[in-house]
Here is the input.
Amino acid sequence: MLRGMNDVGVLVHANPDGDCLGSGYALCLIMRSIGKRARVLCSDVPGKKFTDIFSVHDTEQFEPASYVSVDVAAPSLLGKYDALAEKVSLCVDHHATNSRYALASLVEPEAAATAELIYLIGKELGTDITEDIATALYIGILTDTGCFQFSNTTPRTHIIAAELIKKVKDFAELNRVFFAVKSKQRLMLECSVAENMRYYCGDRIAVIAVSRKLREETGLPESELDGLAPIPCRVEGVEIGVTIREKEDGTWRASVRTATYADASAICAAFGGGGHIRAAGCTLSGDMLAAEKSIVAQCERELNRTK
Here is the structure.
């Protein structure tokens, strides 16, 4: 299917993270390596860490004739490009909640990151995994496994990462940039949300909230809010960690993480979202208190279900 495509638009999800961007740009470079034109289409501006690395590959400007989505479980996650969902010929994803909206789907929930699947596609196409491709794929795997700390990390994940490291110029620097370095504004915001973290259900649920007001006070752009979700689950005894972020339209983006037994995707599915057992997301309406109350109630139901 990919060999038969020309002028390919690679769609990634809104609020882009390392896996969708790494997978998207890697697929673009793979398609270009077999003589195709390809470009990434993203609804939102990525954070600076990503644009510093990936902007150099934004060289193609054309109207796509074919569309492939990567790391996009449902059309609603495409943001302003959601109308293009009906034109998607192929979806490559690792979310068990994928709605199978594309003409054809390659969905493998066991994969730690969609970047794993893009690597396998590249190998199947006979593509030379260049330094640029390897860097994009490594970032995808690195960020979706929490620097190989999350339970989704498998032996295959490490095998693929080992192959990529052979080509990546300085993988240790990527580890540092994405997991050790933070701006002063980001540290200020993290201190604020940690100080105001709220606990429920015998401290088994922890919630942090990032309002537009807080973001404006710290001077942190929305594109730099990626990676906050693990904070609540770092508290000893917390099983479900929830991060809610106010969007420009007044809705709230909820990111749910679970520690050992609760199902994050089941919690978010109640609000039309989805993801994985340990990590999922959804959109909530209302003011901050209403949004928090509704997601906490669903978290309590999940804890009662899994007693």
Notes: The chain is about 35% helix and 20% strand.
